[in-house]
């Protein structure tokens, strides 16, 4: 069972119904409209009522949980089957209005060991320490582009945690991307297939290392990367990856 809700009034009206849907597997409230303040959710009751939830999309708005004690949070079953959690803000506001309340983030994901996809693009006031609390060991898709993490330093081993499972990563507009690349490529070959680097400060040495250590890459987005020459800055897909490798090779030791 799945549900998509567009109006805050609609969300409020059906919340009680949602709490009675133990078979709900997909919930999308990312298109809620006319939300002037926070959307308040009883997270633990939500988890208790929807134990089979696999996909939760909560983008473009602000959320907070009803107050609970640490004991109540710890006793919650969490979302043990959750595989995808999307909470981006792509509105372009880039203010404190698009922050994720850490408490909400932690309470939603603290027992989501099966999580595969995480999207927090465009969110402010987040740190890599927030992501380190995620118990999932096999995250496959991570999107942090345009978040305040784009400017955080250092990465504190975040990519070491998931380097052997990540297949897709979005580092758009990350200004210290070399640290991420160093962590990602610090060991054996990677399973990485897709990387989004739009607007980042990636340099040729990092790009060479990435191409060498990621033999499965079939998508590399390099638009607006200011440290690269104009002929390099574009999207490369599938067979185009060989074109990129040849271009980098022809640039020599730049």
Summarize the topology:
Layout: E1 2-4, H1 8-18, E2 26-28, E3 39-41, H2 43-49, E4 55-57, E5 63-65, H3 70-75, E6 84-86, H4 102-109, E7 117-119, H5 128-132, E8 141-143, H6 158-162, E9 168-170, H7 177-184, E10 194-196, H8 204-213, E11 219-221, E12 235-237, H9 240-250
Parallel strand pairs: 1-2, 2-4, 3-5, 4-6, 6-7, 7-8, 8-9, 9-10, 10-11
Antiparallel strand pairs: 11-12
Keywords:
single chain; 254 residues; alpha/beta; ten-stranded mixed β-sheet; two-stranded parallel ribbon; 12 strands; 28% helix; elongated; LRR_dom_sf; FBXL6
Distance between the termini: 54 Å
Coarse shape: elongated
Oligomer state of the chains in this structure: single chain
Uncertain runs with pLDDT below 50, 5 residues or more?
Answer: 94-99
Major sheet details: 10 strands, mixed
Helix content range:
25-40%
Give the H and E element order.
EHEEHEEHEHEHEHEHEHEEH
Mean pLDDT over all positions: 82
Number of helices: 9
Strand order within the widest beta sheet: 1-2-4-6-7-8-9-10-11-12
Secondary structure class reads alpha/beta
Rg estimate, integer Å? 20 Å
- Beta-strand percent range: 5-15%
Number of strands: 12
Protein name: FBXL6
Organism: Mytilus edulis (Blue mussel)
InterPro entries: LRR_dom_sf
